[in-house]
Amino acid sequence: MPDSTQPQQQQHPGTTGDMTPKPKDEMVDWTGSGLLTGKRALITGGDSGIGRAVAVAFAKEGADVAISFLDEKEDAEHTAKLVEAAGRKAVLIPGDLSEESNCVAAVRQTVEQLGGIDVLVNNIAYQSPADSLEQISSEQWERTFRTNIHSFFWTTKAALPHLGEGSSIVNTASINGLRGNKSLIDYSATKGAIIAFSQSIAQAFVDRGIRVNVVAPGPVWTPLIPATMPEGKVGEFGKQVPMGRPADPDEIAPTYVFLASNRSSSYITGEVVSLLGGETLPG
Asked: Which of 2, 16, 45, 207 has a CA that sits 20 to 30 A from residue 70's CA?
């Protein structure tokens, strides 16, 4: 749980080292069973938080991993070391994926350095809370959409020629994409778009043997939180769910392994998996 007695505000995109407490994001207790042996994965936003935990879990399951990140070099290098410690190859790809050319370049570098792509995890996100719609500038609206949904489209489109039978795409959405959030209007809109986009391409890709699924977490303790939320609210983050705390990334990553692995989820596509700390949704 975030420490309400410690200053937590950071500059976006935030770093793991400045968080109190440090999130559990290294999958220390995870023992692989070969679920992704020989696979090659590209994880956007793989430097920290959920992306780091997923990268390490994939590596422990036998996958080589390309990690796309904005500019958090220290976090990215640490994640790469964790992947390599699991005996797999790690490729670091810096770049702002809110620009289409960088999405294309990230896919190209992954294919060149790993020999292909079998699993794509679209995971980058930006948010900036606002008290009202009027406070959201057109610049913020566009930045949120370019980062959170345009990048998913551009990266998926670039990766598609390299994906085929048995490939998997896992997209990160949010509980806010399922029910909205009055303080995160633009962010929630993009997360809802991710869900509809994913369900649509799941239908479009089924004949190609490519599965597409969504993970929609509730509160998760990642650098995005102290980097985007007001300092006074960070210490209360996640307390509203029945478990009374946010998840650690290590608690979210196993779902990505499940959805990426054909051995685990070969009959699952177009699904949204919500991890909400005890909260239930209607329907």
From this structure: 2
Which residue bears the tokens 């990268």? 55
Tell me the two tokens of residue 38. 């020989």
pTM: predicted TM-score of the whole model, two decimal places: 0.91
Q: Cis bond leading into 217, ω under 30°? A: no
Which residue shows structure tokens 């959920």?
50
Do the beta carbons of residue 253 and residue 57 sit within 8 Å? yes
Buried-state track 101-121, b at ≥16 Cβ within 10 A, e below 16: ebbbbbbebbbeebeebbbbb
DSSP 96-162: -TTSHHHHHHHHHHHHHHHS--SEEEE--------SSGGG--HHHHHHHHIIIIIHHHHHHHHHGGG
Whether residue 106 contacts residue 124, with contact meaning beta carbons closer than 8 Å, is answered with no
Active site includes 267?
Answer: no
One digit per residue, pLDDT tens: the chain, 283 residues? 555 445 555 565 556 656 667 789 999 999 999 999 999 999 999 999 999 999 999 999 999 999 999 988 999 999 999 999 999 999 999 999 999 999 999 999 999 999 999 999 999 999 999 999 999 999 999 999 999 999 999 999 999 999 999 999 999 999 999 999 999 999 999 999 999 999 999 999 999 999 999 999 999 988 777 776 676 677 777 688 889 999 999 999 999 999 999 999 999 999 999 999 999 987 6
Asked whether the beta carbons of 207 and 235 are under 8 A apart, the reply is no
CA-to-CA dists, residue 249 to 49, 113, 136, 162, 193, angstroms: 6, 27, 29, 28, 23
